[in-house]
């Protein structure tokens, strides 16, 4: 088995290479703001993964949980060869926007990435220090899935992406006294993680006090405790939690009030894409 510093060094080297290619790819995009934004975001995330791996690795001398785990060197070599070819084509100006999307999908669903995720999961199992790394990497994977799902021509890559190992499962909370609304919201968000529900603010507050939720989608008008009182009390216990709140309400005046207070809100009814997009924004900002 490779020593931990050597293992982390190899992972970080590949992350650095991917970041460089994504930055170059972003510069090569022609008239596609969504693709450019994706590539820049992926590049920043790859750089962050590299820093986190090296930073947390300094605090761990051994990784007992990885005794039987090795990187597949052939997969690493194949991916390096692919990176070299892709980078040369970008430098020569020979990649179209569709080629760049293909590059992202191929890289993110590659054998190398599968090996990488297995190692990250092993590190997370061995030490809680690696949990933030795993959470960030899972959101990175989800951002690629969302993008590919939004481009019909590249939906064929989704099965490969979704077959990759999951290294982290976010917990989300839906707060609404209308069970039918809560059920619909839960169905829309189930791809983002494990979704729990609460029928009012008081019930939600109990849950928030006993466990961490990466995103909280709440109605405003509810019996026992309304959404605003829930937020007020939650902030007393957990300053900054409003960044994880999304109010989902049919009260237009409340929407304007929330906007003035810098609180994220969405008007009922909303499309599944709008709702999942707002929650995705909350999740990505925490990473």
Describe this protein's structure.
This protein has two domains: 4-162; 171-285, 3-Layer(aba) Sandwich (Rossmann fold), CATH 3.40.50.2300. The chain has helices at residues 4-28, 33-57, 73-91, 97-108, 111-126, 131-150, 158-162, 179-189, 201-210, 227-237, 252-260, 272-285; strands at residues 171-175, 194-198, 215-218, 245-249, 265-267. A five-stranded parallel β-sheet has the order 2-1-3-4-5, sandwiched between helices. The chain is built from twelve helices and five strands. The protein has 287 residues and is α/β, with parallel strands linked by helices. Helix 1 runs parallel beside helix 3.
Total domain modules? 2
Look at the structure and give the mean pLDDT. 87
| Element-by-element helix/strand order | HHHHHHHEHEHEHEHEH
Distance between the termini: 31 Å
Number of helices: 12
The percentage helix is 55-70%
Question: What are the low-pLDDT stretches, counting only 5+ consecutive residues below 50?
Answer: none
Q: What is the beta-strand fraction?
A: 5-15%
Q: What general form does the structure show?
A: globular
Number of strands: 5
**Structural class of the helix and strand makeup?**
alpha/beta
Going across the biggest sheet, name each strand in turn.
Answer: 2-1-3-4-5
For the largest beta-sheet, the strand count, sense and barrel status come to: 5 strands, parallel
Report the C-alpha radius of gyration, rounded: 21 Å
């Amino acid at each position: 088995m490779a020593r931990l510093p050597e293992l982390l060094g190899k992972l970080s080297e590949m992350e650095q290479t991917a970041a460089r290619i994504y930055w170059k790819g972003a510069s090569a995009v022609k008239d596609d703001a969504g693709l450019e934004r994706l590539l820049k975001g992926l590049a920043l995330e790859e750089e962050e993964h590299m820093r986190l791996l090296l930073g947390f690795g300094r605090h761990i001398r051994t990784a007992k949980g990885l005794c039987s785990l090795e990187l597949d060197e052939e997969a690493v070599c194949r991916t390096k060869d692919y990176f070299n070819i892709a980078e040369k084509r970008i430098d020569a100006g020979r990649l179209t926007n569709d080629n760049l999307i293909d590059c992202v999908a191929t890289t993110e669903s590659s054998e190398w990435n599968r090996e990488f995720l297995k190692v990250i999961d092993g590190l997370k199992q061995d030490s809680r220090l690696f949990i933030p790394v795993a959470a960030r990497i899972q959101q990175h994977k989800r951002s690629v899935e969302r993008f590919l799902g939004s481009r019909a021509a590249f939906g064929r890559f989704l099965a490969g992406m979704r077959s990759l190992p999951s290294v982290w499962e976010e917990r989300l909370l839906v707060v609404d006294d209308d069970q039918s609304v809560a059920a619909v919201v839960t169905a829309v968000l189930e791809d983002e993680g494990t979704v729990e529900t609460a029928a009012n603010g008081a019930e939600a507050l109990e849950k928030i006090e006993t466990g961490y939720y990466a995103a909280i989608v709440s109605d405003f008008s509810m019996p026992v405790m309304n959404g605003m009182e829930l937020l007020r009390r939650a902030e007393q216990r957990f300053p900054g939690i409003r960044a994880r709140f999304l109010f989902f309400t049919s009260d237009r005046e409340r929407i304007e009030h929330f906007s003035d207070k810098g609180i994220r809100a969405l008007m009922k009814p909303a499309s599944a894409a709008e709702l999942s997009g707002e929650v995705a924004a909350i999740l990505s900002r925490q990473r």
